[in-house]
Structure formats: C-alpha cells, structure tokens
C-alpha cells in the first residue's frame, strides 16, 4: 500500500543524503497517474519542488490536453512549472533516430539544463516499470547488471532519484483514488507498437495468471541481485588490483595472472568495461593473450597491447607532450619522468658519465628556448658517431622497445633539429668537442 507515511519511511531509508526539507527537486511530470501521485506526495512532504513537462507534439490534441492539464495541476498545488515544447518527429528525422530514442534524448537534455548544482531530478518509475525492464533485458540477453534493472539513484551526468520504484502501478492508482487526484491517460500506452508496451499489455498479464505477484517478485529479485552485484564487483576489483604492475608509468598485467580467469567473462568484463570496451569484445581480449608481440585492441579511449608476457594498458590521449625549456631552468617534470638541467664550464678533467640517461650538449650550439617533446614519425637525427642521418622511427625499432614505451620516448630539440633522443642516443651535431667551452648536462629519471 502507498501512503504518505510509508513513502517518507522509504525515502529516509533509501535516500538518507537527500533532505526533503533542504534540497530542491525537479519533478518530471507527464500528467499520467504516476507523476501526478509523485508530485502530490512531495507537495504533502512540504518539499521544495518544481514541475517540468515536455510536450513532444506527438499526439496532436492529446499533447495539448496533457500540457493544459499539467498547467492546471501546478496552479492547484501552487508550485512552479517549466514547459518545453518541441517537434519530436522533426528532431528524430534531423538526427536519424527512432522516436523513442529522440524523446528520451530531448527529455533528459532539457532536464539537465534545468538542474542547478544541488538540485535533484525525480522520475516516477515504479515496480511495474522495473519488472518490464528486467524482462526486456533478459529477453535481449544480459549479464548480472542488466538483471538489476532500473537504479533507484543516480548521481553522474544527472542527479536523479526514483522514489516510487518499490510501489506497484495498482498501489499508485489506489493512492490517486483515495486522494481524489485526477490524471490523464496516454492513448499510446495501450498500443503494442513498442516492445515495452507488448510486455506490459500482453506478456505480464499472462504470467500474472500463474504468478499473481509477478511484478513485486521481479522487483524483489532485482534488489537481491543488486546486492550480489556489489559483492561480485568488489571481488573482481580486488583480484585485478593485486595483479597490476606499473612499469615506466604504464599499467601492465602479466598474462600468467590474466590466464587465471581467462575463461571467466565476469572477471574480464570487470577489467575492461572502464576502458571503453563493449561486452562483445570479451572474446577479442581473450584472443589477445595469445597474439603476437605488438598486437592490440583499441577503444576510443585506450589500447590493450600485447608485449612479451604482459598486457599494457595505454591511454590514447596522454602519450603526446610538448614542453618549452628556457635557459636557467633546473628541473622539469614530464609525464613520464624528470629532466634535470645544468649549465657547466667545460674543463679538461670533467667526468663524463656514460649513463645513457645523461646527455652532454655543446651549449654554444643551442638556441634557447629548447624543446622537449614526444617524437614524431617524420623525425630523423644523426646518431652519435655517425655522419649519416637516420629515421628516428627505424632507430627506435632497432631498440626493440614495447609499443607503449616506444610511444613515450621524448626528444630534446632545437627548432626542427634533434639534440638528444632522451635516454637513448645523442645527436652527433650537438656533441661536445675539445673546442667546447660551456656544456649543458641533462639528466633524465623516468618513473619506473
């Protein structure tokens, strides 16, 4: 049964961080019984509310009727109302999408534009909606998360709560009757043109002939699965956290560790979902474990690269760097390490350290400011000891670096001339000679 008392009890239990007295709530209202009841309950709670109605212009006179009804209802409650009217057919045609997708995009984009920093959007989804969603996910094919249905709370792109989720449509209608509330009916809900309507109007009523409380039972199951999902996610996250190693600033996973759960899609999905992969790519990721060196799988944000006995996880947008260095600067932080610079007087007894992480450049041949940047495919240089130029790409390839490490290699340059391939080879044109009077010593320390 839905009453003000059990509504507020549910609110306090489910949304302890949302104060009915202190927050401002934007209520999505269509004029149907669900949103009318939600607005009425929030008004009775003396919450600070604003109603928001979208006229999608999809049902001719019926759309006008709904808008007028909502306007009258807002006046009755004496609460603010926002109305957005838009030609959804035109929007869908312009952006090449279905009407349902277009309506959803329009609705939530507008709601987002209305929300201030501390505002919360409320929608009137209920237990019947939850049952329909879980069945749709099940019929399409889904994992554990899909069977948890609609979340009661979101706080990502939208700050959103669904306080009617545990209550059934029948309970909501009974509340409306008991409190003398009028509402409008959307005639499209009775048609079976959409999958959700087919499930609502045909499939669930037939199931109810055998299981009378099917909606409540599905809702209860989804709540139990939410608890199970939290346990699974914590277990999977803990497993991967133990396997990660950071090598030269790159997250890596030993293939021997990955192979412990290679045939378990739940563990693989728990790893790859945050890197932009889709569930259908789980098999591809498994194949990568046995691929040749340098093979990779890419998403818009990351790449998984197979190199020797590890998988390197590389962000697509962080490996390029371009830093200007002015004379007198001592220490420079780069994405993958630290450069320490020192101008020295050249002396006969100066100790030249053979460490490849240290470069000695003839300062007279430099034109300040100099540049530290990530190498490019068009770069070439004259490796120390050679008089012939060499493509930098070929030089780095000869070092047999992993693809991820190769991408991170930096250079010190003067204009378009490379002075030093950092950590690997000096350019012969900038070496010190017996005629050198001042030199620039650069020490590089990577993050490994």
Structure description:
- 36% of the residues lie in helices and 23% in strands.
- It folds into three domains: 4-226, Rossmann fold, CATH 3.40.50; 244-315, Uridine Diphospho-n-acetylenolpyruvylglucosamine Reductase, domain 3 (2-Layer Sandwich); 322-446, Phenylalanyl-trna Synthetase, Chain B, domain 3 (Phenylalanyl-tRNA Synthetase, Chain B, domain 3, 3-Layer(bba) Sandwich), CATH 3.50.40.
- α4 packs across α5, α6 (127-140) packs across α9 (214-243) and α11 crosses α12 (282-288).
- It has 448 residues and is an alpha+beta fold.
- The longest helix has 30 residues, at 214-243.
**DSSP summary, beta strand count:** 22
Number of helices: 14
Unreliably modeled segments? none
Assembly status: single chain
Broad structural category:
alpha+beta
Strand order of the largest sheet: 3-2-1-4-6-5
Q: What is the mean predicted local confidence, pLDDT?
A: 89
Looking at the structure, what is the overall shape? elongated
Helix content: 25-40%
Q: Strand-residue fraction?
A: 15-25%
If you compute it from the alpha carbons, what radius of gyration comes out, rounded to the nearest whole angstrom? 32 Å
Question: Notable features of this structure?
Answer:
alpha+beta; 3 domains; Phenylalanyl-tRNA Synthetase, Chain B, domain 3; 448 residues; Uridine Diphospho-n-acetylenolpyruvylglucosamine Reductase, domain 3
Quick gist of this model?
The protein is α+β, with helices and mostly antiparallel strands and 448 residues long.
């Amino acid at each position: 049964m839905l009453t003000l008392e059990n509504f507020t009890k549910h609110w306090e239990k489910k949304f302890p961080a949302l104060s009915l007295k202190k927050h401002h709530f934007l209520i999505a209202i269509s004029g149907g019984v669900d949103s009318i009841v939600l607005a009425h309950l929030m008004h009775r709670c003396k919450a600070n509310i604003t109603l928001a109605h979208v006229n999608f212009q999809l049902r001719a006179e019926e759309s006008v009727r709904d808008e007028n009804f909502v306007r009258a209802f807002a006046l009755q409650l004496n609460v603010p109302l926002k109305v957005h009217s838009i030609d959804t057919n035109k929007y869908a045609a312009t952006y090449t999408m279905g009407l349902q997708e277009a309506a959803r995009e329009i609705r939530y984009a507008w709601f987002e534009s209305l929300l201030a920093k501390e505002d919360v959007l409320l929608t009137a989804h209920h237990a019947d909606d939850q049952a329909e969603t879980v069945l749709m996910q099940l019929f399409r094919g889904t994992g554990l998360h899909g069977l948890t249905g609609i979340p009661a709370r979101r706080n990502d792109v939208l700050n959103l709560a669904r306080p009617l989720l545990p209550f059934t449509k029948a309970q909501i209608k009974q509340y409306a009757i008991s409190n003398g509330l009028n509402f409008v009916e959307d005639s499209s809900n009775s048609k079976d043109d959409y999958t959700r309507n087919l499930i609502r109007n045909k499939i669930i009523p037939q199931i109810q002939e055998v299981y009378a409380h099917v909606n409540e039972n599905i809702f209860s199951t989804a709540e139990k699965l939410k608890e199970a999902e939290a346990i699974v996610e914590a277990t999977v996250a803990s497993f991967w956290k133990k396997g990660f190693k950071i090598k030269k600033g790159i997250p890596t996973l030993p293939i021997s560790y990955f192979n412990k759960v290679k045939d378990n899609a739940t563990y693989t999905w728990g790893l790859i979902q945050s890197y932009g992969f889709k569930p259908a790519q789980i098999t591809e990721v498994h194949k990568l474990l046995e691929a040749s060196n340098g093979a990779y799988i890419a998403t818009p944000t990351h790449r998984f690269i197979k190199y020797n006995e590890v998988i390197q996880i590389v962000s697509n947008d962080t490996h390029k760097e371009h830093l200007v260095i002015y004379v007198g600067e001592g220490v420079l932080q780069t994405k993958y390490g630290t450069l320490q610079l020192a101008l020295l007087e050249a002396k006969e007894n100066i100790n030249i350290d053979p460490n490849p992480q240290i470069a000695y450049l003839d300062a007279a041949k430099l034109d300040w400011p100099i540049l530290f940047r990530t190498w490019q495919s068009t770069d070439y240089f004259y490796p120390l000891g050679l008089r012939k130029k060499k493509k930098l790409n070929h030089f780095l390839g000869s070092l047999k670096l992993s693809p991820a490490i190769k991408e991170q290699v930096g250079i010190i340059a003067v204009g378009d001339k490379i002075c030093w391939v950092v950590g690997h080879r000096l350019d012969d044109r900038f070496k010190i000679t017996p005629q050198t009077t001042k030199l620039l010593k650069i020490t590089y320390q990577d993050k490994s």
